[in-house]
Every structure is written in structure tokens, then in C-alpha cells.
Amino acid sequence: MGEQGTLTREITKTDNNPPEVLELSRDVAKSISEWMADNPNIPDEAAARAAKTQIDRAKLCVKDLEAERDGKVRPLNDKVTVINADYRKPRNLLNDLLSEMLARVQDFVRKEEHRRAKIAEEAARKAREAEEAALEAERLEKERLDDAAKGEVGVDIASVIEQADDAFEEYQKAEREAIMAQRDARVRVGGGFGRALSMREKEILDVVDAIAALTEIGATENIKQAILTSARAFRKIHNRLPNGISATITKEL
What per-residue confidence (pLDDT) applies to 213? Predict the structure, then answer.
């Protein structure tokens, strides 16, 4: 039958235990490699025909490898398909319910964080007012103590000091409350079995100026492939390639 037959045809009928395709493919690859080493170039049509034989052997070997691989894998893939189908419906149902529940909790968290942010803002305002009052009381304290030191009669030093201390204590209390309110502004939903739920920042990128981005990034290979994919889709709709895209026709075996 010659070397142009299928890979299995290279095995004689007298073989009681023919090698598997994987093993035979290594022999074919070695044989082709040796032929290529003996024929580093193709000087004439006879050599081209001989090379064509090796090409066909390689193609048939790849075909037989794929056939054997598919024969082994297909039953497993069919089984996986069945298993996935069994699990897909309940998984999708639970995911839909999960999405709805998360949306409801997220709505609550946003409203609650907004409410707590207002409380934190008010606490911060009171802390600023208390600080201003404490600074004013401290100024008055120094002023009255200075007056007393200069001989002014009737200055109630104890009362002046007490008022300044009270103002400073009020400021410290207001500052602690502001810090606690700011800390509590972030809502964490505990309970259940997993970690607490809380709002997390998520970065979302968007292309606002494609030309500016391309100018700075440059035409990377990933960008080129994305553009070519879009160009092919454009051609299907408009029956032409978009501006900036060229097509070259090449010939190859």
C-alpha cells in the first residue's frame, strides 16, 4: 500500500500486538526527522515529491493521533456534558437567588452607610465646635491669669481654670465620638457562615478616548488582534474592511 496509506496501514497484518498511535507517532517523527537531516533542501521535483510523501505521512500521523485522542476523550466529554447539565439548573437557580439577595442587602447597606455618614458629619461638626470653644476657653484662661498676675482684684482663678478644663474635656469627648462615628460609618453585615459582607471599592475602566489611549500605549500585539477581530466583524456587516486595515493575499501550501 505504500507510505501514503493511513498510519495504521503501516502496521502489517501479522502484528498480533500493534503499537498504539502514540508509540508509532514517535517512530514516524524520528523517520521524518532523519529524512530531513539527509535532505536539507529541495533541489528538484523528485525531491519535492519525496518531501510530499513525508508531509503526507506527518499529516496522516496527526490525523490518527487526533482520532485516537478523540476516541478516548469523547466518552469522557459526553459524561462531563451530562454531569454539567445535571448541575447547571440548580446552580443557576441558586446564583439567581443569590444575586437578588445580594442586591437587597446592598440596597440596605448603601442606605445605612448614607445615614451613618450623616451622623459622622454631625459628630465631626460638633468636634470642631468643641475644639473652637476649648481654644477660646484656653485664651480666656491665659488672659484672666495674666490679669491676676498684674494685680487685678476679684479674678476667680479656680473658676477660670475649671471652665478651661471643662471645655477641653468636652472637646476630647466630642473628638472621640467623631472618631467612633467615622469608624462605624462603614456597614458590615455579620452572621451566617462566611465572612461579613461590606461594600468594597471596585475599579471599572472605560475607554473615553481610544485614539489618545492608542497613541500612548502603542499598537501592542493584543491590541492588534482585537482590532483585527473587530475589522473582520465590520467586513461581515459592510462587505469591506474599515479604514486603516489592509489585507494581503499570500500563497502557501
Answer: 95
Tell me phi and psi for residue 197, to 5 degrees: -90, 135
Q: Are 133 and 175 in contact (CB under 8 A)?
A: no
Q: Which residues contact 46 (CB under 8 A, 6 or more apart)?
A: none
Q: Which pLDDT band holds residue 1 (cuts at 50, 70, 90)?
A: very low
What nine digits make up the cell of 226? 482585537
Q: Provide the grid cell at 192.
A: 451566617
Q: How many CB atoms lie within 10 A of CB 178?
A: 21
Instruction: Specify the DSSP element, H or E, that contains 187.
Output: none
Beta bridge partners of 189: 197
Question: Cα–Cα distance between 174 and 225 in angstroms, integer?
Answer: 60
**pLDDT score of 9 more than 80:** no
Q: How many CB atoms lie within 10 A of CB 160?
A: 19
Q: What whole-number distance in Å separates Cα of residue 249 and Cα of residue 40?
A: 28
- Within 13 Å and on the Cβ side, how many CA atoms surround 58? 13
Cβ atoms of 168 and 124 closer than 8 Å: no
How does residue 40 score in pLDDT terms, banded at 50, 70 and 90?
Answer: very high
